[in-house]
From TrEMBL:
Keyword list, A-Z: ATP-binding, DNA damage, DNA repair, DNA-binding, Hydrolase, Metal-binding, Nucleotide-binding, Stress response, Zinc, Zinc-finger
Record organism: marine metagenome
HAMAP family xrefs: RadA_bact (MF_01498)
Listed name of the protein: RecA family profile 1 domain-containing protein
Domain RecA family profile stretches: 68-217
Lineage of source species: unclassified sequences, metagenomes, ecological metagenomes
Gene Ontology CC terms, in alphabetical order: cytosol
Matching InterPro entries: AAA+_ATPase (IPR003593), DNA_repair_RadA (IPR004504), P-loop_NTPase (IPR027417), RecA_ATP-bd (IPR020588), Ribosomal_Su5_D2-typ_SF (IPR020568), Ribsml_uS5_D2-typ_fold_subgr (IPR014721), Rubredoxin_2 (IPR041166)
Length: 462
């Protein structure tokens, strides 16, 4: 039976938010298995326009001026670096993470730090009561001066309060609880989230007031709600960490006012999140020097190098096919490296399960970590530790060759700063300065394994 749209509202996809003027069955954009949903009828309320009329019209780019020092410091140097130097007025920043990871704690601490500069902050909560927020502030030793609370979920009511107070910063916890009176759907739905954020965006851009939004992530690690939400905001930060680990990682996936893929580390303590000034030292603090299957690599986290430990473990396969398990590394990358090791270095991995972990809860996608990953797997497979004081840098190709990586000088400098003495590098890196490291050049993965593993072959049972 042919369906007709209700009025002029049309239909939309509940997964990606794609809109269609007529019912087409399923979404042609994301190819979801859920059929298109009829859009609810909108109430024709006389909503005030929050866009500044002066902002309309054509402007010559050369005639636009701005204050380079107008960024607002969050009170955390590491977070300011991830944001590109601080919070830009009028920007929308989305902080996403799993429930209980520390998003509300981080937002309340940011509000406290900015309030110390005599700025007013409006903290809007749709998940907790004002008494619950006060309990958290007491635990974090936050006085709450210049921080004003509002427990509300209706976006029209929120904008009325914001228009009356005009704070220096607005914090909303969380975006999935917002709803609009114009949309007859439950809070958290695709249309509700998109409409609510669009309303706040229009108000914030017109008033040049920054907004910090918290958002939940789904089981597959994506932000709950429409994907268009990530396109609407100016910056997307992910707060990640293991449940039983005090380390918290903040990394930027999108930033219109700075570089992406920046990383900052925090430590969750009894009185809140504390900055980790030297993440490399923290990530390697509990590393065993003579452990089998452990390698170290200087990777690049945004604009600075980070020393990371990669751990590998091989065990006999008891199923019909060997398993490959990756934590902190892309699984397809792990499969490629194990295949290269089996074909080019003749490691017997066809009947072995391979498990790889990046210590400290960090997630890396740097191709320069290929060689360190391969050394860790080879170390465990051969039951030989990697030479002490050694780091490995290089990308591994399918032919087993070692390829050069970017920002090699900064990686070498970071390894030298932490006391490492030697480094395995591709042969093309001979023109770089070693900064006190003893270079060990290799052309293939097999040659790198011979250079990297200890010569003493004491018998150890895996």
């Amino acid at each position: 039976m042919t369906r007709k749209p209700f009025g002029r509202n049309g239909f939309f996809c509940s997964d990606c938010g794609y809109e269609s003027p007529k019912w087409m069955g399923f979404c042609s954009s994301c190819h979801s298995n859920q059929p298109l949903v009829e859009a609810p009828s909108r109430s024709h309320s006389n909503r005030k326009g929050w866009i500044n009329p002066a902002s309309s019209g054509l402007k010559e780019l050369a005639s636009i001026s701005y204050d380079i020092g107008s960024r607002i410091s969050s009170g955390f140097q590491e977070l300011d670096r991830v944001l590109g130097g601080g919070i830009v007025p009028g920007s929308l920043i989305l902080i996403a993470g799993e429930p209980g990871i520390g998003k509300s704690t981080l937002l309340l601490q940011i509000a406290h730090q900015i309030s110390l500069t005599k700025r007013t902050i409006t903290y809007i909560s749709g998940e907790e009561s004002d008494h619950q927020i006060k309990l958290r502030s007491d635990r974090l030793d936050i006085s709450g001066e210049n921080v004003f609370l509002l427990t509300e979920t209706n976006v029209e009511t929120i904008v009325e309060h914001l228009e009356a107070s005009l704070p220096s910063l607005v914090i909303i916890d969380s975006v999935q609880t917002l709803s609009s009176s114009d949309i007859g759907l439950a809070p958290g739905s695709i249309t509700q989230v998109r409409t609510s954020v669009l309303t706040l965006l229009e108000w914030a851009k017109a008033r040049n007031i920054p907004l910090l939004l918290s958002g939940h992530v789904t089981k597959d690690g994506t932000i709950a709600g429409p994907r268009v939400l990530e396109h609407m905001v100016d910056a997307v930060l992910y707060l990640e960490g293991e449940p039983l680990n005090a380390n918290r990682i903040v990394h930027s996936q999108k930033n219109r006012f700075g570089s992406t893929n920046e990383v900052a580390m925090f430590s969750m303590e009894s009185n809140g999140l504390k900055e980790v000034v030297d993440p490399s030292q923290t990530l390697l603090a509990n590393r065993s020097l003579d452990a089998v299957g452990s390698s170290v690599v200087p990777t690049i986290g945004g604009s600075r190098p980070l020393m990371v430990e990669i751990q590998a473990l091989t065990s006999p396969t008891y199923g019909p096919s060997p398993k490959r398990t990756a934590n902190g590394i892309d699984l397809s990358r792990l499969v490629m490296i194990t295949t290269v090791l089996a074909q080019r270095s003749h490691l017997n991995l066809g009947n072995r399960d391979v498990t790889v972990n990046v210590a400290g809860g960090l997630r890396i996608s740097d191709p320069g970590c290929d060689l360190a990953l391969a050394l860790a797997i080879a170390s465990c497979s051969k039951n030989l530790p990697i030479k002490q004081g050694l780091v490995a840098i290089g990308e591994v190709g399918l032919s087993g060759e070692l390829r050069p990586v970017s920002q090699l000088d900064r990686r070498i400098q970071e390894a030298s700063r932490l006391g490492f003495t030697s480094c395995i590098l591709p042969i093309s890196a001979q023109r770089h300065k070693m900064q006190g490291l003893n270079p060990l050049f290799a052309t293939t993965i097999s040659m790198a394994i011979r250079l990297g593993l200890s010569n003493h072959a004491e018998s150890r049972n895996p």
